[in-house]
Design goal:
33% strand, four-stranded antiparallel β-sheet, five-stranded antiparallel β-sheet, 4 helices, 32% helix, Immunoglobulin-like, alpha+beta
Length: 213
């Protein structure tokens, strides 16, 4: 039995560790939520910036996708906000820069802003640039499947959103809380399915060994 368990550990332990490593890396990407919104809506977006290195992130820039108009932002303690605008006064990008320690290793920071979606359905790609204290920059501008992909919001055709423009401060606050709750809710389904698959494989492996005896 001891020999059997040793064989099992050699085969399956690396697999299980690999699954946990994959889940950790995938969750470290810069993400913008919600992932789906409607055409013409005044949407409250939240971008989550995690730290992947052992040094702090001190600055973060987010480019406005084509057709998306960034209108306002929520202040973050110890961070300054600047907006780069074009000749027509429309925001091309926004930058948050730390006046303190920044985002420390093992932490993440959320930045919330309101933007008006384009009137036509599209996939809004959020190009982002993450600046670390040592001067290095991670460019989140790749396509899906890249090491550093940009986050995508699917803008779909929806009902009239005129009421969004007239939303009260209380309604906006509720939207912020809802977005934060969704962002902080862990998506463990891929991990659970992977672990179940490993357990089933393990059972099949043990049965095969018993048949050989």
């Amino acid at each position: 039995m001891k020999k059997t368990m040793k064989k099992i550990s050699k085969v399956f332990l690396p697999t299980v560790l690999g699954l946990f490593l994959f889940t950790s890396v995938a969750s470290a990407h810069v993400t913008v939520t919600p992932k789906t919104s409607t055409t013409g809506a005044w949407e409250t977006y939240t971008v989550k910036v995690p730290v992947e290195k052992e040094i702090p992130t001190t600055k973060f820039t987010l480019k406005a996708p084509e057709g998306v108009e960034i209108m306002s932002y929520q202040p973050v303690p110890d961070w300054t906000y600047t907006a780069d605008k074009d000749a027509n006064g429309k925001v091309k990008s926004i930058t948050f820069e730390s006046t303190g320690e920044g985002i420390l290793p093992g932490q993440f920071q959320q930045f919330t802003f309101v933007a008006k979606n384009p009137e036509k359905a599209t996939k809004a790609a959020w190009d982002a640039f993450q600046y670390y204290k040592d001067g290095s920059i991670v460019e989140w501008t790749g396509d899906e499947g890249a090491d550093t992909p940009h986050s995508i919001t699917d803008i779909v055709v929806g009902a009239s959103t005129a009421d969004h423009h007239q939303a009260t401060t209380e309604d906006t606050h509720k939207d912020d809380e809802k977005t934060t709750d969704v962002e902080n809710t862990p998506n463990n389904l891929p991990l659970v399915l992977s672990i179940v698959s490993v357990i089933l494989s393990l059972a099949a492996f043990v049965l095969a060994l018993r048949r050989k005896k």
